[in-house]
Every structure is written in C-alpha cells, then in structure tokens.
Amino acid sequence: MQEAFVVALERWPGDGMPDNPGAWITRVARNKAIDKLRRERTLKVKKEVLAGLEALEPSAEEIGEGEGEEDAAAFPDDRLRLIFTCCHPAIAPEARVALTLRTLGGLTTAEIASAFLASESAMAQRLVRAKRKIRDAGIPYEVPSADQLPERLPSVLATVYLIFNEGYRASAGDTLIRAELSAEAIRLAAILNEVMPGHPEVQGLLALMLLHDSRRGTRTDEAGEMVLLEEQDRARWDQVEIQRGLRLAQVAMAGASPGPYALQAAIAAEHSRAAEPGDTDWARIRSLYDRLAGIHPSPVIELNRAVAVAMAEGPEHGLDAIDQIAGLDGYHLLHSARADLLNRLGRAEEAAASYEKASELATNPVERSFLERRLRELGA
C-alpha cells in the first residue's frame, strides 16, 4: 500500500487524480503484492532448476577432463551448454524443445502446452515419451562437438524464443509480463551470438527479442491493464534496445535467403521505425509475412499475416483471411482479432460473440480483463 501511495504521488500531479482514487490505489497495491509473490515464486523455481542441473551434471570421468575444458571454452554459459546437450537429434524436434523448456527453462507443463497450443495432458504425455526415449535408447549426456551444433541450433533457437514468449505474454498468473524470463532469453541469445558470430538466424532471433522487449514498459498501464500496440506511448520505448535490434535485423536480412527469425525481426523493425501508428508500413509487413508463410507455414503466422492484410487492405480482407485459417479454434488471439475486425465492420453482435469466445479461452487474467472491457465498450 505504501508503494502504491508513492506511485500516486509521482503520477497524479502530472496525470491528474483518477475518477476513483481508492480503487486506483487498491489496484496498484494489489499488483505490487502480486509482483512480490511472483519474485518469491521465481526464486523458488530457479533454486529447483539449479538443483536439477546439479543432478544432471556429469562427472569428470564421464566427459573427460580435457573435453570438459574445451566445452567450457566453447560455451561460456552453463545453461546454454545444457540446452545444446538436451536438444539431441535422436529425440523428436517438438519433444526435445518441450523437454528442454521443462528441465532447464523453468516452465511448467501447462505453460509449455500453451506455447505449443496443445492440451496439458497431451504435453505431459509428450514429455514422458521423450524421457522414456532417452532412457531406452541410452542417449548419452554429452556436449555436442562443433560440427554437431548446426543440426541442434534450430531446436536451441526455438527453446530460447519460447522462454522469451512466456515472459513477453505470460500464459497464466496475475500479470501479463514475466520480465525475468524475457531477460534470460535475451541473455542466452546474446551469448549464442558470441559463440556463433555472423549466423543470420541467431542475429535475427536476438534482434526480434530486443525489438519486442523495447516496448515492455508501455504494454501495461500503472494499474496493470493491457495496452495495445497502437495505444502505447512510443516515446517511452527503449531506444537503446531498438537501435541494437535494428542493426542486428538489418544484418540478418542481408543474405540471399533470410530465415524465419530474420523475417520476424524485419517485421518487428517496421513497427519500431514508425514514430506514430499511422506511419507503419503495413504493405511491407504484409509482404514479409507472405515470405515467412512461404518458408515456415503455421496457423499462427497465417493469423498474423491476416492482421497485416486487414491493416493494409481493409478489415473485410483480413476477416476473409482469418476465416480460412484452420487449427486455431482454441486460440484466444484468433477470436480477439476476429472480434476487432467485425467491430470495425459494424457487425457488433458477431463481434461480441467473438470477444466472449476469446475471453473464455484466455488463460491470463490481464488479457481476460482487457477482452471483457472491450466487450463492455461494445455493449455501450
């Protein structure tokens, strides 16, 4: 409560007193308490992860004294080394990413399931099968040699990016953002960029995360409510992260055939360059999504492409594109995007139904609160 009063003393003289000061103070105090609880829970999780890593660590006899020294030189970070170790090619790609997230990323089975748009029970079974595969096949705990790194890199990048995504848009909990996860993913990608300098996809991933993270301070307001991209105060975006991300994105896109992370970084760069929402080059973003869908097709990419189509060509075209996407009926962001386009087209009743569906599917209370507010505004 004291911290909430401090925030009020800092904000109210410039922003004015809110309509309901007591509710404002209560909400901010509640969010401060939640942040404290989350920090304590994160510390507990990290201690458990460290204990697990200690149990996984091989003896000097298992890896050989000289080999261990060479590996340490190649991987200056223990967690990154372990991620490469866990992303063994004998395990199915999605399973190895999920297992690494569970073992080293500190994510719960439910959070991993949300990242893969799968049910928690299905993800639990996938993790069990991956562990059984390791046991039955006798897959050794060993750090890959330099010539084995390229085949493991896609899974490593996917693991790091999913850790970032859970931090950027938490699948559960009482806040939208888990800054500690995003920061850890950026740290790992920065180290990976030093270990594998000049790799376009490593540069692209690091650029993508930096550009997204630059908006972190504006994605929620003082009361913890979600703020959409077009409503954010762009003057408060982190310009240091943006400039670093733009440089990396440009280098990543310089090759003849940019990969998925380079293309996504180029999309994020277009948003970062726009001083105002109206300055955004949506035609360019739509073109980049066309290329991305061509080399890395997925329903989520199609959804993002549909939003770009709506912004570049009109909501009716975007709605047509959304209605052609299969496999995302249980994804709340599809229904919220559809609701927004229906609302823009004046189809209020259909928009309300889509907002309700999105609210039912949303697992994060901050997102659910935002969708319920949109629904109330629609009714008004």
Please provide a written account of the structure.
It is a single chain. The longest helix has 36 residues. By secondary structure, the protein is mainly α. The two termini are 33 Å apart.
Question: Could you say which overall geometry the principal axes of the C-alpha atoms support?
Answer: globular
| Radius of gyration from the alpha-carbon trace, in angstroms | 22 Å
First CA to last CA: what distance?
33 Å
Beta-strand share of residues: under 5%
Derived structural class: mainly alpha
Number of helices: 19
SSE sequence, one letter per element: HHHHHHHHHHHHHHHHHHH
Unreliable sequence segments: 52-73
Mean of residue pLDDT?
A: 85
**Main β sheet profile:** none
Can you count the beta strands?
0
Q: Tell me roughly what share of residues is in helical segments.
A: over 70%
What is this entry, summarized?
The chain has 380 residues and is mostly helical.
Topology:
Elements: H1 2-15, H2 21-56, H3 60-63, H4 65-74, H5 78-86, H6 93-103, H7 109-115, H8 120-137, H9 149-168, H10 179-195, H11 200-213, H12 239-252, H13 260-273, H14 282-295, H15 299-313, H16 315-323, H17 332-344, H18 348-361, H19 365-379
Helix pairs in contact: 1-2, 6-8, 6-9, 7-8, 9-10, 9-11, 10-11, 11-12, 11-13, 12-13, 13-14, 14-15, 15-16, 16-17, 17-18, 18-19
